[in-house]
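lol so apparently i was supposed to do this last week
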Amino acid sequence: MDRPYIFCHMMTSVDGKIMGSYMETPEGNAAGDVFYNIAFGSNPHYKHQGWLSGRVTTDDNFTLYRKPVLDENVPLVRSGDFVALPNAPMYYVSVDPSGKLGWESNTLTYGDTTAHVLEVLTGKASNAYKAFLRKLGISYIIAGEDSLDYALAMEKLKTLFGIETLMLGGGGVLNWSFIQAGMCDELSVVIAAAADGSSETPALFETRGGMATNKAVGFTLKSAEVKDGGSVWLRYRINK
Ligand SMILES: NC(=O)c1ccc[n+]([C@@H]2O[C@H](COP(=O)([O-])OP(=O)(O)OC[C@H]3O[C@@H](n4cnc5c(N)ncnc54)[C@H](OP(=O)(O)O)[C@@H]3O)[C@@H](O)[C@H]2O)c1
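anyway here it is w/ NAP bound
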């Protein structure tokens, strides 16, 4: 299969949570900087061309649950994918199967990283939503009718946009569904020396939403490094 090399890069608390007040502690802040610098700093480890996020992660961080402004009477758009910008230096790729995200621009900024927005849709996204993306100059691909066709989506990211290395960047639902689908080669996790004990926050991997089963997966440790603020950076190969 012609797809990018996919690594899952995440920050967690000691108890494996990817959100929560532990992030505001000095130890959490230090781990956050470690996490960012590994993937997006001036000398990044993976040198990826895009990072993939679930719809909830995108709403929480970038589109803030705004509703897209849709024209239900817009003429039918051309069928198939829309490549607004091939070979961008960095893509923010959002898995948004039904077309819910209320974008206002085709670029976003995360830290000092600027990225072109690219949506992964399925056949559930409406014509009006696709027209909305085209108007904003946001690229999209269609992969699957009712559910995500992982292999097709990943192949399109490589062949249409030149993404050779892709970061799988959360949340837990997205991460686990990709691992279960065999679409993740490596796990890179920065564990902050902090926790908050909340029962309400998502973990690194989640079966919630019914997109994947809880079939156990083993990992092979590639490296372990102590980093700032008592954090540790663990890298694993995912056992097939
Ligand atoms: N600590 C970190 O490093 C880190 C990194 C990233 C995110 N986060 C946090 O994680 C939290 C969100 O995580 P989450 O697990 O609740 O949600 P998520 O994985 O971000 O998003 C889940 C949603 O994305 C879509 N989706 C994901 N996988 C899919 C698949 N295989 N097929 C079809 N659709 C799929 C679905 O959208 P629809 O509901 O539209 O169908 C699904 O409900 C946020 O609070 C975020 O800030 C933390």
